[in-house]
Amino acid sequence: MSRTLLERLARRGMTPGLERIRALLARLDHPERAFRVVLVGGTNGKGSTARALARVLQAAGERVGLFTSPHLLDVRERIEVDGAAIAPGALDDLLARLAPHLEASSASYFEALAAAALVHFAEQNVTTAVLEVGLGGRFDAVNAADPALSIVTNIDLDHTDWLGPTLAHVAREKAGILRPGRPALTAATGAGAAFLAAAARARGARLERVAPTHVETHGYGVAFVLDGGAYAAPLMGRHQADNLALAVRAARWLGAGEAAVRAGLAAVRHPGRLEYRSAERLLLDGAHNPAGARSLARALADYFPLIPKTLVFAASGDKDAAAMAAALRPAFARVWLTRYPGPRAAAPAALQRHFPGARVDPDPRRALVRAREERPPGGLVVVAGSLYLLAALARTASEAGAQ
């Protein structure tokens, strides 16, 4: 029942505004008021920051709800309590109970899931809910909650058709999750940080920038220094230091001690974000916009220097494929272009002009198999460009490696 209902809601599309989600939450007796809320927005790094913060708070003895998006394999991944996804039957039952309210409020797919998460968290007696913004911030469904703390990871260009064409437009939308008189954290730099700071002042929010130092790769993770303390976590990529530092500072503000901070960082995982499967010599990374592509290229230079690399790439049609390709091309000896299932995917032929000499196979499973077959000894295959591509391949990657 849950999948049928969600598919029907997905066909409604997306209309900006908080009126529907506020009306829906009112019908549900405001579940978002039953616990402390942290909102996590930004262009990249939202999921890593949210997951790290949730793990630290859990280690500190909190009962933690975590709402993230998108999912890779199952929609249940979006709704967790203390690291456990909502059970299939529980989600079905919950959506069945909510269905009349969802219909009455004309809820969208994302609004329905956000409301379901908030009801689930209230019924599970969570003490803190960490809510990842889906798109933008100002009109995102989770912004109907009233956060004790807001986090904006960074400001870069993405979803410009929805958020606007400049960093100033994007910053304005992201700053929508800030609250007057409430604390807010960011790791944004450059012009994006300046625009965000101006927006925070206009809203009366207390914005603080968090900047880790002495960032180093650490095995297949990252290490950094913050406020004189040294920390490490098993997430690959120097850029993760910014996200993890935000989680550390937020956790401290929320009352977590040093032991919980270290235990939580050690436990954090984020599937599909620089996820290295060493036995298969396979790296999976969403890298769905230019900033993500640049972070992937830096990580490849840090963790896999001098190793021949093959890229299997697909992207959504609304992404800046030219900028993504410019960041990624120098890192790869071979490129396979493909597409993920769905109408948003860019045609491989359209991507080919950004990757001269790339091979094309529109079937992502076959493209991965062929990339593996042609991989030189000791080489690495990287699948990147879209989380939708990773979702299409996640179940078959191990099978392809076994062939």
UniProtKB/TrEMBL annotation:
GO molecular function: ATP binding; dihydrofolate synthase activity; metal ion binding; tetrahydrofolylpolyglutamate synthase activity
Domain Mur ligase C-terminal, chain residue ranges per copy: 272-386
Any single Pfam family the record assigns to this protein: Mur_ligase_C
Keyword Repressor: no
Keywords: ATP-binding, Ligase, Magnesium, Metal-binding, Nucleotide-binding
Catalytic activity, EC: 6.3.2.17
Mur ligase central domain: residues covered: 40-250
Residues making up the signal peptide according to the UniProt record: none
Keyword Secreted tagged: no
Assigned GO CC terms: cytoplasm
Catalytic activity: (6S)-5,6,7,8-tetrahydrofolyl-(gamma-L-Glu)(n) + L-glutamate + ATP = (6S)-5,6,7,8-tetrahydrofolyl-(gamma-L-Glu)(n+1) + ADP + phosphate + H(+)
Similarity remark: Belongs to the folylpolyglutamate synthase family.
Annotated protein name in UniProt: tetrahydrofolate synthase
Species for this entry: Oceanithermus desulfurans NBRC 100063
